[in-house]
Amino acid sequence: MPARFWNNLEAQYRERLANLDEREKMKADLDWLKAMPIKDLQQRGVVGRHADKVMVLRDVLAFYGVGSVEAWKEIWEAPEVAARRSTCFQTCPGAASAWIRQGEVLAQPVSCQPYDRSRFHAALTAIRALTVERAEVFRPEMQRLCAEAGVAVVFVPEMKKVPWNGAMRWLGPNKVMILMSLRGKTEDKFWFSFFHEAGHVYLQHSKKELYINDGVADDPQEKEADVFAASWLIPHTYDAVIKGFRSADEIKGLAVQLGVTPGIVAGRFRHLTGKWNRFSGLIRKFDWKSAK
Predict the structure, then answer these.
(1) Per the domain annotation, does 89 fall within a domain?
(2) Considering the entire predicted model, what is its pTM?
(3) Is the same domain home to 250 and 163?
(4) Are 49 and 73 in contact (CB under 8 A)?
(5) For residue range 129-169, what is the model confidence (pLDDT) as tens digits?
């Protein structure tokens, strides 16, 4: 027998031993899977349907781009991620991180120009005018405009127990992700959430943080993003007029004057007055078919 035959056998034997050792180590981490939304990720095609739990664990770690559970914890349980903005990272770390990670996976291959603040300002101005369009029209256009300014806009359906409307995270020094969930599905919530996340970018909030829009505004930067979104869509000087509206025609008339969809004006009215059942017919709903 030639020497290479025995060398190959030895190499295969050592590789087999290494795989068995790795498998034994991974078995000790299987309990970690209980905190992950495995069924949901399998339904979304993110994780394979394996009878062998070790294979499932490998798929989950590969999805996160890490080699071990410890590496996952170093990234997703870091104080700057877990402690800020939402209790979901404490109560449902698996589902919370899975939603964000899906966005990252979609955003990474999006071709973007280096981030440019003035170009992003122009993009936001153009996108505001697109609010009157159907989702099939505005979605690809807003993604194109943002990509030209260095911002990748992606859509991921919300995960169970993760009540988030949107998120923002810098993927590098010159590229940022805005992640949207379509939670609530109504256009007023969608556009407010988008401009809220855009506010974090435009206002030059920290590039090291993950910003989550879960409706909680007890953080100064979240408040700033809320003010940015509301003012960008409808200047607050119109609030008194909007509160006094009594008819759909008044809503539509101001929408035409402002150049936005009537649903945004109706949403502001409901927010200002607390009359959440008024003007529902003026607020369009989006679905995931229009977001793809």
Answers:
(1) no
(2) 0.86
(3) yes
(4) no
(5) 999 999 999 999 999 999 999 999 999 998 888 888 899 99
